[in-house]
């Protein structure tokens, strides 16, 4: 953790964390004079040049649940994530924003190693979940995923009853005690603000729920597993505004109890729901800081341009 | 044409061009026609099959009666007959006069006076139905054999007398003393009354003969005579023609039979093979004598045809000579046949048994006539009823009332069925009635197709399919053995194919890397293209002998290979986790590469020991039922179930405890304990199977005779394996597609929740893909039901019923394929095969309909996905 503490953000600085080896691998082009105008910086990134991240000093004060260390990822020969280093604070909501294709979802899916399922993915660097290396060869990926909950872009309840959906993670852990299952089911559904709507039809198929209900069910399913980190991958992009509102309220309620990492396209959502916001662009972390600062007085013009909707 | 006014510079035509419209229309019409054409074609096939099979169930037709007034004679005709075509009838009166008349109107065509026939003092006559072979008994106790009846000879058109050239088809004409018949096909034949008799042989006591019977054998005639004093004689008359002098040398040999009862008997009847003679008293007592050595007849069996006071009034052999029809004074006709049994008291192990009973109207039978070409039987009773009965399926074909004064005006004293079964002729003293009739397919009825019947010489009622034999053979058209065979083939091949195909599909869709999958899947799909005749050839000629030789190792490996794979998977957990993660990608290959050969090796090594322990060292002998306890069979049959039971038990009893205790164990320790649990479950499995086996064995239940039994080289096991080659690719492909098409986000959700790939597969992917998996299995089932070549070549084609996995069977499709080319068009055999095709059509239809129905239900459940 100590290692991760970077000096006060300086637009001229390199990431001090890059080991020489990682440097060689991921930063073939040496850093050069900082770009001052948004166009220059973005152009430099598009050009493939290394552009250092701008991390607000407050970020180093928060105790992290997840540390991402100089993380690179390639799809085949195409690099999708370029040397991202960031800490996800414990029991806070962290939003990842950025234009399409900037690697937000890829980064999120890298956290629970869902990218392992794809054939031609190659990674470099590491992530640590509460100090345990995620990409260590000794780490059992199944055990890792048990420590995280994930909610996807599209609601994806299993084609089984609402009840079974919620207790799925307990079922796969072999829990058979009906009392425990019932209790956790109710707690999770209440946690996901769905209990009152579905308590009378727990045995009905989850596919009969509306889109917003399905998504909240997925969140209930995720929190039933008592995750150390809750990963939300654009959880509201397929929902209507009312359902979105409910999910956002839910995220508000989870704040303080869970560490949440949320990917979103919606600036208002990020500003409403998150404590911290990271702005990514073309696989790079551009700026990372408390949400209020990112949205009101970002360090970089590019960030300001993006969050105010002038590009992206 | 570029235009400046539009963005792209092209002006779009706002109407569809005629060419496109026409193309659209043509495509629509063609596609519609194609679709409707397909449906129509399938329907036409169905209609065709039905149209061929349907006449089987058509009611018999019987034409209007043609009554003729006979010349009044003191006794009426004692024997009747008809020519081949059934259009000319002869009758023999007790005075010895023989009359030949037209069946249609009774017009007399010829009369042979007693002097011409030399039969003036006859007292008994017997003419073999459908032939001219006759024996006549006389007042003085002598008898003569010979030929009586009508002989037809083909007549060239040029030889037809001019006056008869114009007679209509199926008509009979008379020119002088020449009787000419014009057949339906336009051929003329001359019909000549024949009465040629050999020199008389002397009887027993000199009293008038009362009953005579003869049987034509290849080397001569066998005759049995009974006189009014009860004297009985059997005689074999052998006539040989001297090749040099053309002289006929007649030698006779025979013996007198002295029955046990002193009362004079009423009938003698010879068996058609000439090996037995039946002596029947009118009180119902009957004796069966063995006359294989004609000089010294031996009593084989005494039995009772009826109980007093009912009297036996007529007794005839049915066509084929294997069954006797005995008619009694209560109007009941019983069919008796010899049944071989171990408990028989007779000297030859055969017991005469009444297998069928036709109850009448309570009035005595007056005449009984078997058909000369089938098991049809004409029975006249005193009430004037004339019934046509079919023995095999106990069916009353037709019932006629002849008591009308325009017809017989009473009960018939003599009845015959013409040689081609196209005329039924009945006579009283002075009247004769002929009916033109068509019995249709009397041997086929719902009962004979789908119910067990008591066939001649069988010990009990059985389902049987047996359609080819010599001409007098009793055809057995029971479809049940074929339906059973079809189901057995389907069941056993599905038993092999479904688990393998589904597991393969789960593996390839869930675990295999897509690089490998892209290579493996086309190869397996290629297997589906293997011609089934090649598979059948392989199964029948390569696999069957191999399985026969290596039965025990193969049976052992069925259990040992999965066991070693499971053991390998457990062992894998003990491997240090570093090494395990490193080789994780190859774990399946590693485990299976080691475990499968190891399993085969173990099976090979252990099988002699197991065979000694469970099957007395020779499984084939054990299967034959030669000694040994039933334990081995029970172990074999129960192992899969006891395995499941043991697993469930351990999981329920020890699982929770183990989970609680193992929380702070190291991974290595947990893996070791898991291995221990596995070993315990193997032991438990064996123990459960053994205890259950011993329990069933002690109750004297044995798997032999059920699931197991005598080993036959071509059997259900071989078919199961062979057919798997045909079915597995089919099920695999569809199941793999179904599993692969489960939305990726469900898989991600499950994996993201921390489920293992296997948990994901079992809990999410398989239930979601259930409809696809189900249709995969049903399509495999459809293929197995209709599959022909493999079962034809590897199943032995023995239509036996019984679940014995080591025995053969015959399926509907194999029966159709083998027998249809040999069945004569339009015969009942031919039509029954078409009916079998209808049944097969129906079965696949049902299977596919159920499949579609279930699939739709599943789909509705998951359509929101």
Give me the secondary-structure topology:
The complex is a heterodimer of chains A (312) and B (865).
Chain A: H1 20-26, H2 38-47, E1 54-55, E2 64-75, E3 78-89, E4 93-97, H3 104-111, E5 121-129, E6 132-133, H4 141-146, E7 148-151, H5 162-166, H6 168-172, H7 178-191, H8 195-198, H9 211-224, E8 229-233, H10 241-254, E9 259-263, H11 267-273, E10 276-281, E11 284-290, H12 291-296, H13 301-307
Parallel strand pairs in A: 1-11, 4-9, 4-10, 7-8, 8-9
Antiparallel strand pairs in A: 2-3, 2-5, 5-6, 10-11
Helix pairs in contact in A: 7-9, 9-10
Chain B: H1 18-53, E1 61-62, E2 66-69, E3 77-82, E4 88-93, E5 98-102, E6 108-112, H2 114-117, E7 122-127, E8 133-138, E9 143-155, E10 172-175, E11 178-182, E12 188-197, E13 209-217, E14 220-227, E15 232-241, E16 248-257, E17 267-270, E18 276-280, E19 285-290, E20 298-304, E21 312-317, E22 323-328, E23 333-340, E24 350-358, E25 365-370, E26 376-381, E27 385-390, E28 395-401, E29 414-417, E30 423-427, E31 431-438, H3 446-450, E32 465-466, E33 476-477, H4 480-510, H5 514-528, H6 532-549, H7 551-574, H8 577-582, H9 587-615, H10 619-623, H11 631-653, H12 655-661, H13 667-698, H14 716-740, H15 744-752, H16 757-768, H17 770-786, H18 789-794, H19 812-819, H20 828-862
Antiparallel strand pairs in B: 1-31, 2-31, 3-4, 4-5, 5-6, 7-8, 8-9, 9-12, 10-11, 11-12, 13-14, 14-15, 15-16, 17-18, 18-19, 19-20, 21-22, 22-23, 23-24, 25-26, 26-27, 27-28, 29-30, 30-31, 32-33
Helix pairs in contact in B: 1-20, 4-14, 4-17, 5-14, 6-14, 7-9, 7-13, 11-13, 14-17, 15-16, 17-20, 19-20
C-alpha end-to-end distance of chain A: 33 Å
CATH architecture of chain A: 3-Layer(aba) Sandwich
Classify the beta-strand content of chain B into a percent band: 15-25%
Q: Helicity level of chain A, as a percent range?
A: 25-40%
Enter the CATH topology name of chain A: Rossmann fold
Residue stretches of chain B low in confidence (pLDDT < 50, at least 5 long) are none
- Based on the structure given, which CATH architecture of the domain at 480-630 and 702-862 in chain B is correct? Orthogonal Bundle
């Amino acid at each position: 953790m100590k290692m991760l503490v970077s000096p006060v953000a300086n637009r001229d600085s390199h990431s001090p964390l890059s080991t020489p080896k990682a440097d060689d691998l991921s930063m073939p082009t040496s850093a050069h004079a900082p770009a001052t105008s948004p166009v220059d910086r973005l152009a430099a990134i598009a050009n493939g040049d290394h552009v250092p991240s701008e991390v607000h000093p407050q970020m180093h004060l928060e105790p992290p649940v997840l540390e991402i260390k100089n993380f690179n990822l390639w799809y085949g020969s195409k690099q999708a994530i370029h040397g991202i280093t960031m800490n996800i604070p414990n029991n806070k909501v962290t939003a990842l924003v950025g234009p399409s294709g900037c690697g937000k979802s890829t980064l999120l899916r890298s956290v629970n190693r869902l990218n392992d399922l794809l054939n031609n993915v190659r990674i470099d660097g590491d992530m640590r979940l509460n100090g345990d290396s995620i990409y260590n060869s000794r780490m059992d990926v199944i055990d890792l995923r048990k420590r995280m909950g994930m909610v996807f872009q599209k609601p994806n309840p299993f084609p089984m009853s609402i009840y079974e959906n919620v207790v799925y993670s307990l079922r796969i852990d072999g829990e058979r005690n009906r009392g425990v299952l019932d209790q956790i089911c109710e707690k999770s559904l209440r946690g996901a603000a769905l209990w009152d709507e579905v308590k009378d039809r727990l045995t009905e198929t989850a596919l009969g729920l509306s889109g917003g209900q399905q998504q909240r069910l997925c969140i209930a399913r995720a929190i039933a597993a008592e995750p150390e980190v809750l990963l939300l991958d654009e959880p509201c992009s397929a929902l209507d505004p009312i359902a979105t509102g409910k999910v956002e309220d839910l995220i508000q309620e989870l704040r303080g109890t869970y560490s949440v990492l949320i990917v979103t396209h919606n600036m208002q959502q990020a500003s409403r729901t998150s404590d911290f916001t990271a702005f990514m662009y073309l696989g790079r972390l551009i700026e990372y800081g408390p949400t209020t600062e990112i949205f009101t007085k970002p360090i970089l013009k590019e960030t300001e341009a993006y969050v105010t909707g002038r590009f992206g | 044409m570029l235009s400046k006014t539009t963005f792209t510079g092209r002006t779009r035509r706002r109407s569809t061009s005629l060419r496109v419209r026409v193309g659209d229309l043509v495509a629509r019409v063609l596609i519609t026609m194609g679709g409707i054409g397909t449906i129509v074609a399938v329907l036409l096939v169905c209609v065709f099959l039905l149209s061929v099979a349907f006449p089987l169930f058509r009611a018999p037709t019987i034409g209007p009666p043609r009554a003729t007034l006979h010349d009044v004679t003191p006794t009426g005709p004692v024997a009747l007959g008809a020519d081949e075509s059934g259009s000319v009838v002869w009758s023999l009166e007790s005075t010895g006069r023989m009359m030949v008349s037209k069946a249609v109107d009774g017009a007399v065509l010829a009369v042979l006076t007693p002097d011409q026939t030399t039969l003036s003092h006859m007292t008994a006559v017997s003419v073999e139905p459908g032939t001219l072979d006759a024996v006549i008994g006389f007042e003085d106790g002598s008898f003569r054999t010979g030929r009586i009846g009508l002989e037809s000879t083909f007549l060239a058109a040029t030889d037809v007398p001019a006056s008869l050239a114009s007679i209509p088809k199926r008509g009979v004409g008379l020119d002088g003393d020449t009787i000419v018949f014009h057949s339906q096909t336009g051929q003329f034949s001359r019909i000549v009354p024949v009465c040629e008799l050999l020199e008389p042989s002397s009887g027993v006591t000199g009293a008038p003969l009362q009953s005579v019977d003869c049987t034509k054998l290849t080397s001569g005639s066998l005759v049995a005579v009974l006189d009014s004093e009860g004297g009985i004689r059997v005689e074999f008359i052998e006539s040989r023609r001297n090749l040099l002098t053309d002289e006929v040398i007649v030698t006779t040999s025979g013996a007198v039979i002295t029955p046990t009862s002193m009362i004079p008997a009423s009938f003698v009847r010879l068996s058609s093979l000439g090996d037995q003679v039946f002596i029947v008293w009118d009180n119902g007592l009957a004796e069966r004598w063995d006359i294989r050595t004609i000089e010294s007849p031996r009593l084989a069996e005494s039995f009772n045809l009826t109980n007093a006071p009912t009297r036996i009034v007529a007794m005839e052999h049915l066509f084929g000579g294997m069954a006797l029809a005995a008619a009694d004074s209560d109007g009941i006709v019983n069919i008796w046949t010899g049944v071989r049994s171990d408990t028989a008291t007779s000297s030859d192990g055969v017991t005469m048994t009444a297998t069928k009973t036709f109850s009448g109207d309570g009035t005595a039978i007056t005449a009984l006539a078997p058909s000369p070409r089938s098991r049809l039987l004409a029975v006249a009773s005193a009430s004037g009823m004339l019934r046509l009965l079919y023995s095999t399926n106990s069916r009353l074909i037709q019932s006629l009332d002849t008591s009308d004064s325009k017809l017989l005006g009473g009960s018939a004293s003599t009845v015959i069925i013409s040689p081609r079964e196209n005329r039924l002729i009945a006579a009283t003293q002075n009247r004769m009635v002929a009916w033109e009739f068509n019995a249709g397919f009397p041997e086929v009825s719902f009962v004979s197709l789908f119910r067990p019947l008591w066939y001649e010489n069988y010990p009990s009622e059985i389902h049987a399919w047996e359609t080819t034999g010599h001409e007098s053979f009793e055809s057995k058209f029971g479809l049940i053995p074929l339906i059973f065979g079809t189901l057995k083939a389907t069941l056993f091949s599905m038993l092999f194919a479904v688990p393998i195909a589904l597991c393969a599909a789960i593996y390839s869709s869930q675990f295999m890397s897509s690089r490998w999958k892209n290579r493996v899947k086309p190869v397996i799909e290629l297997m589906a293209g293997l011609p089934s005749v090649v598979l059948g050839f392989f199964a029948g000629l390569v696999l069957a002998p191999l399985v026969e030789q290596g039965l025990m190792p193969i049976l052992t490996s069925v259990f040992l290979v999965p066991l070693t794979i499971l053991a390998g998977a457990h062992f894998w957990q003990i491997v240090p986790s570093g090494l395990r993660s490193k080789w994780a990608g190859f774990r399946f290959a590693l485990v299976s590469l080691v475990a499968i050969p190891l399993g085969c090796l173990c099976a090979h090594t252990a099988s002699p020991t197991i065979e000694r322990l469970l099957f007395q060292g020779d499984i084939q002998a054990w299967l034959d039922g030669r000694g040994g306890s039933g334990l081995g069979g029970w172990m074999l049959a129960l192992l899969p179930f006891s395995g499941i039971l043991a697993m469930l038990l351990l999981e329920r009893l020890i699982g929770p405890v183990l989970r609680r205790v193992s929380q702070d164990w190291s991974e290595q320790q947990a893996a070791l304990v898991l291995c221990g649990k596995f070993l315990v479950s193997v032991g438990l499995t064996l123990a459960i199977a053994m205890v259950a086996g011993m329990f069933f064995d002690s109750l004297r239940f044995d798997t032999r005779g059920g699931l197991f039994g005598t080993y036959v080289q071509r059997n259900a096991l071989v078919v199961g394996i062979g057919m798997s080659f045909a079915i597995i690719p089919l099920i695999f492909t569809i199941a793999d597609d179904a599993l692969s098409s489960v939305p990726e986000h469900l898989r991600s959700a499950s994996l993201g929740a921390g489920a293992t790939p296997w948990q994901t597969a079992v809990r999410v992917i398989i239930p979601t893909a259930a409809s696809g998996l189900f249709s995969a299995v049903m399509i495999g089932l459809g293929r197995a039901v209709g599959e022909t070549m493999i079962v034809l070549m590897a199943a032995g084609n023995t239509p036996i019923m019984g679940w014995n996995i080591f025995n053969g069977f015959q399926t509907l499709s194999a029966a159709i394929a083998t027998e249809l080319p040999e069945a004569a068009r339009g015969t009942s055999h031919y039509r029954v095969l078409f009916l079998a095709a209808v049944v097969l059509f129906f079965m696949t239809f049902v299977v596919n309909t159920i499949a579609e129905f279930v699939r739709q239900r599943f789909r509705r459940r998951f359509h929101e996905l």
